[in-house]
Amino acid sequence: MTEEEKRTKAWIGDAVLGLFAREWILKQTDIAVKERAEVFIQITSNQFLASLGEPTSMEAEIGVVYETDGLHAAFDFIEQKILPLFLKRRAKSKQPGSYRNKS
Description:
single chain; mainly alpha
């Protein structure tokens, strides 16, 4: 895949990840309305994606799955590959004494 193709796939993958994140956030009863934007930023940020690999490559991978197998398959990919680490980090940041816990 050329760099241009990778960026094109990443652009699509970024949109799919954003849609997944919004739908997932709306289903979570433990995320207050005022926290939704921050959680969205956390799960879609390049900083977070970098913990899984190079961010553009991660988004491109999502884009390829979407273009090859459709939205449902892309969502499944995100649920299996990205969401578990996000949930682990989110739980860790809520532990008592964590400097990340702003409440």
